[in-house]
Amino acid sequence: MILIDKPPHNPLRLTVFFPCYNEEMHVEQTTERAIKACRKVSDDFEVIIVDDGSRDRTPELADALVERHPQVRAVHNRPNLGYGGALQRGFREASKDWVFYTDGDGQFDFEEIASLIPLLDSCEIVAGYRLDRKDSAVRRLNAWAWTTLVNTVFGLRVRDVDCAFKLYPRKLFDEIEMHSMGALIDAEILARAKNLGYRIAQVGVHHYARDGGEQSGANIKVIARAFVELFRLRRKITAAHRARSHT
Ligand SMILES: Nc1nc2c(ncn2[C@@H]2O[C@H](COP(=O)(O)OP(=O)(O)OP(=O)(O)O)[C@@H](O)[C@H]2O)c(=O)[nH]1
Ligand SMILES: [Mg+2]
């Protein structure tokens, strides 16, 4: 077994970030909820709003939140880099030992971070899975097929690969490269972490219907891009694994 040198989780030094693309309806409430939940689990935390090239009022609202809350930072991708580009930015900007992300549109409950932390006693990564996913039957079926495909291709055993509710040790992001700019980003991080020997625990979390704003997660372009990236990524990861085994 590979032993990972992981930072302490008691006390928990925590970065929480969430990507926002045209989330003017949600960014304020999401930030307030993030701060409230962080206060309950950490004395040393930061909240990062990753504005991904939004064209609505998200950027100004995010900058105003920074003025109001000393724990909050805002970073702006210009132009929009896509979901994967937004997550990459959040992981690269994180400065605390542990980094948690979720969506910026209120579909998850930050308070459930507390249920991830005890699992760090026995693993290095905690991935959520949606207990009662509030999406259409077609999207749920697609997500099941996608998770099955990703698990098969990368030898993973995750229940809900794209669930935006995960906690990682920040040092992982010094050890891996990230290339996915689209929806494949979750699979890429988990697959690369697994190859380095990181252990993944899983916990059920609640999921809420999106209450407005722009819906785009089921966009056909997003799905097509994820498929193309999946097979490219498999080639890259296999090559990286071979190179490591020869050194
Ligand atoms: N769609 C999309 N979301 C982005 C992008 N960059 C950041 N995000 C954020 O990523 C999060 C997830 O995107 P969502 O569009 O909510 O995806 P989803 O939850 O699968 O699907 P719906 O909410 O049903 O559209 C949200 O907080 C978005 O604001 C981007 O380029 N496209
Ligand atoms: Mg959403």
Structure description:
The structure is a single chain. With 247 residues, the protein is an alpha/beta fold. The protein has a single domain (13-245), classed as Spore Coat Polysaccharide Biosynthesis Protein SpsA, Chain A (Alpha-Beta Complex), CATH 3.90.550. 39% of the residues lie in helices and 18% in strands. It contains seven helices and seven strands; from the N terminus they run βαβαβαββαβααβα. It has a seven-stranded mixed β-sheet, sandwiched between helices. Strand 2, helix 2 and strand 3 (72-77) form a beta-alpha-beta unit. The longest helix has 26 residues, at 220-245. The structure holds guanosine-5'-triphosphate (GTP) and magnesium ion (MG). The site of guanosine-5'-triphosphate (GTP) has 17 residues, from strand 1 and helix 3.
Strand order of the largest sheet: 3-2-1-4-6-5-7
Number of domains: 1
The CATH architecture classification is: Alpha-Beta Complex
Helical amount: 25-40%
The main β sheet shows up as: 7 strands, mixed
Helix and strand arrangement:
Elements: E1 13-20, H1 27-41, E2 44-52, H2 58-68, E3 72-77, H3 82-93, E4 98-102, E5 125-130, H4 137-154, E6 165-169, H5 172-175, H6 185-195, E7 200-205, H7 220-245
Parallel strand pairs: 1-2, 1-4, 2-3, 5-7
Antiparallel strand pairs: 4-6, 5-6
List keywords for this structure.
247 residues; alpha/beta; Spore Coat Polysaccharide Biosynthesis Protein SpsA, Chain A; 7-stranded mixed sheet; 7 helices; 7 strands; 39% helix; binds guanosine-5'-triphosphate; binds magnesium ion
Summarize the model shown.
The protein contains seven helices and seven strands, in the order E-H-E-H-E-H-E-E-H-E-H-H-E-H. With 247 residues, it is an alpha/beta fold. The protein has one domain (13-245): Alpha-Beta Complex (Spore Coat Polysaccharide Biosynthesis Protein SpsA, Chain A).
